[in-house]
Specification:
The protein has about 300 residues and is an alpha/beta fold. It has one domain: 3-Layer(aba) Sandwich (Rossmann fold), CATH 3.40.50. About 45% of the residues lie in helices and about 10% in strands. It has ten helices and nine strands. It has a seven-stranded parallel β-sheet, with helices on both faces. A two-stranded parallel sheet has the order 7-8. Helix 2 links the parallel strand 2 and strand 3. Helix 9 crosses helix 10. The longest helix is centred in the middle third of the chain and has 22 residues. It is globular, with a radius of gyration of 19 Å. The N and C termini lie far apart (about 55 Å). The N terminus is likely disordered.
Length: about 300
């Protein structure tokens, strides 16, 4: 069944005695239905698990969704009446994204909250990044955000909420992350425009800009990325997935526009935006020290 599964729905109905997550207390009302892209791992999975514990109907979207994942998510449901649906989706394809989102809205329900977590990270100094790799990151992170927004907006009603994931790297230049930073700067720009346009329709927009968080994406960067990047990014700290996820949910509940979990990451964000010349000077100094240490 699963090896033939393409943009198909699976519903799992398993009860759970989980209690309402404390990070949901900022919601004036818990949404009945939430769509989450990138729901198979990282932030997407954390958000799906937490919202399932609040008796929310969830549809997750990802390139690959395993039976084991669905079983694990089903185990945290609190009611047999909840719907948990999964759709395999390549977010880079605009046509397929629209088709799959349309189908999910018919089969599950129209979501009050749509969260776009899907994204990838590829790191290397710019001159070592191939055009194909650069394009892949832009396609997934930036065009994927565009594709999800274009597909879901015709379904969103007054009072709905769209959340896009950018990154602290969408405001702060990061060594060896030219493609990633370019894509996330783009997502931030997209979110700014959508916030202006959709406000007139009664639809709120949030953009999540986390620093480093302990997710599979960060694990991969640590294995294959630059030690210089690790040291430069250390100033913003590394949060656990649960720490970051709880703060993100609180921001979503408040319908906060820009959400950055972690005090240190918030300070970096504000320094980069309000004292950009000073921030660049500090970054240059730290980079020079790290490169010197690496040579030695």
């Amino acid at each position: 069944m699963w090896n033939l599964f393409k943009a198909e729905r699976m519903t799992v109905r398993v009860g759970s005695n989980s209690v309402l997550h404390k990070s949901l207390k900022t919601f004036k009302s818990i949404p009945k239905t939430v769509f989450i892209t990138g729901g198979a791992s990282g932030f997407g999975r954390f958000l799906a698990e937490t919202l399932l514990q609040a008796n929310v109907n969830i549809a997750i979207f990802d390139r690959q969704i395993s039976p084991e994942l669905m079983q694990a998510l089903g185990a945290v449901k609190v009611s047999d009446k909840q719907t948990l649906a999964a759709y395999e989706l390549d977010i880079c394809c605009a046509t397929k994204t629209t088709q799959v989102i349309d189908r999910a809205c018919r089969e599950v329900a129209t979501p009050e909250l749509a969260i776009h977590c899907a994204g990838i990270l590829r790191t290397a100094p710019f001159q070592e990044l191939s055009e194909d790799t650069f394009r892949q990151v832009i396609d997934v992170n930036l065009l994927g955000s565009r594709n999800l927004a274009a597909a879901i907006l015709p379904h969103l009603n007054h009072g709905s909420h769209l959340v896009l994931f950018a990154s602290l790297a969408g405001m702060v230049a990061t060594y060896s992350q030219a493609a990633y930073a370019a894509s996330k700067f783009g997502v931030l720009g997209l979110a700014e425009v959508l916030r202006l346009e959709l406000k007139q329709m009664g639809i709120d927009v949030s953009v999540v800009c986390p620093g480093e968080v302990q997710t599979p994406m960060l694990d991969e960067e640590r294995r294959s990325g630059s030690s210089v990047t690790k040291e430069l990014n250390a100033i913003a700290g590394v949060l656990s997935l649960e720490q970051a996820g709880q703060q993100i949910l609180r921001g979503i509940g408040r319908r906060q526009y820009m959400i950055t979990p972690g005090i240190r990451a918030k300070l970096i964000r504000e320094l980069a935006r309000k004292a950009s010349s000073l921030f660049r000077w500090l970054s240059d100094q730290k980079l020079q020290r790290e490169l010197l240490d690496k040579r030695q």
